[in-house]
Amino acid sequence: MRDWASGIRLSAFSVIMLSLVVLGAWVLVPTLGTFIDQRQKISALEQSIQVSEDQIAALEKERERWNDPAYITTQARERLYYVKPGEVVYLIDNDLDPAALPQQQGPVSDTLEETPSDWMPQLLRTLTSAGLSDTAAVAR
Prior knowledge:
Largest sheet: none
Strand content: under 5%
Order of helices and strands: HHHH
């Protein structure tokens, strides 16, 4: 190890050059970090601008649709249930999502099972759950 270290000769020029490299690295590293950070911010802002431009394009397209009399008529019929004179409209009362419909009841067992619970709390739970349910039973 000592032989290797003794073989290294540092001249004044080498020391100056090494100092300039270290000084350059010390000056450029924070600047490079700032540059990378600013490029990331610019990229994020450009992406935000693109999203905003897409939203503007969609809103302009929506505005163009509202300039069409046929679209306005369709929207009035669907949203406000407007009809032309002499038309008959049929509204479906139980137009529920199939997922919201009650599930089919399974087969009833022939065996009688006795539950150890008291019947009064069970009755109260049944009444409150029936009163708070969102969907009505559909008769088929």
